[in-house]
Amino acid sequence: MESQLNKQSYGKKVKSGIFGLDELIGGGFIPGSVVLVSGKAGTGKTIFCSQFLYYGITQYNENGIYITTEELEKDIKEDVFESFGWDFESLEKEGKLVIVHLAPNELGKIKTVIMDAVRKNNVKRAVIDSVSLFEQFIGDPFEARMKLYEILRSLKESGVTTLITAEIPEESKSLSRSGVIEFQVDGVIVLQFVPFASRYKRSLVVRKMRRVDHSLKIHPFEITNRGIEVKLF
């Protein structure tokens, strides 16, 4: 996958839209890269991806597509509007955002759906939330890996910067169900709960970011009324 990155774009960066994150990854994501956002349930993966798209559109004029395999489109729209005031409905009507829900038996359409949006809506940012269902439904780990590779390669060739999410199973030491996705991507960001006094706090660690001198520290983050805010040391 690394060879697909546009070598001329290493000096440019795609702003993440996550407050405090760009300072940890050399200014942002490399254009056309694919980053895995991994974590257990409730750690903030969907918020992270929604924020990446929302601020990408509203602050950096980069249209986006959100492929959801679990939550319905209307639930995502309602959640982000009620929590943060992000009006995905209006962005859709303006043609700046595409949100598509794909059922397990429709996962083979992911590549076509995304590439259509790239052509019709000038999409520069993409989210696939999540690939966990993708892995489960296909069953054959090798077939799942190859299909995902084809999708990610197409996105890279189009210059689309992509976030994909995966849920970490309880008691698992891998960063995805199959344990192989983390080796197909350019970057891995892990969201986690860390014990603190008598409760847990959310934290983030950049486990991998190719061609970037990134932070290796565990950084706490908070979910505020404007989204995720990473605390810097």
Q: How does this structure look, described?
A:
By secondary structure, the chain is an alpha/beta fold. It has a single domain (2-230), classed as P-loop containing nucleotide triphosphate hydrolases (Rossmann fold). 30% of the residues lie in helices and 27% in strands. It has helices at 45-60, 73-84, 88-93, 110-121, 132-138, 141-157, and strands at residues 34-39, 63-68, 97-101, 123-129, 161-167, 187-196, 199-209, 219-224, 227-230. A nine-stranded mixed beta sheet has the order 3-2-4-5-1-6-7-8-9, with helices on both faces. Helix 4 runs parallel beside helix 6 (141-157). The longest helix is centred in the middle third of the chain and has 17 residues, at 141-157. It starts with 33 loop residues before the first strand and ends with a strand.
Question: Would you report the number of β strands?
Answer: 9
The neighbouring-strand order within the major sheet is 3-2-4-5-1-6-7-8-9
What is the SS-derived class?
Answer: alpha/beta
Number of helices: 6
- The proportion of residues in beta strands is 25-35%
Low confidence ranges: 1-9
CATH class: Alpha Beta
Short description:
This protein has 233 residues and is of the alpha/beta class. It has helices at residues 45-60, 73-84, 88-93, 110-121, 132-138, 141-157; strands at residues 34-39, 63-68, 97-101, 123-129, 161-167, 187-196, 199-209, 219-224, 227-230. The chain has a 9-stranded mixed sheet with strand order 3-2-4-5-1-6-7-8-9, sandwiched between helices.
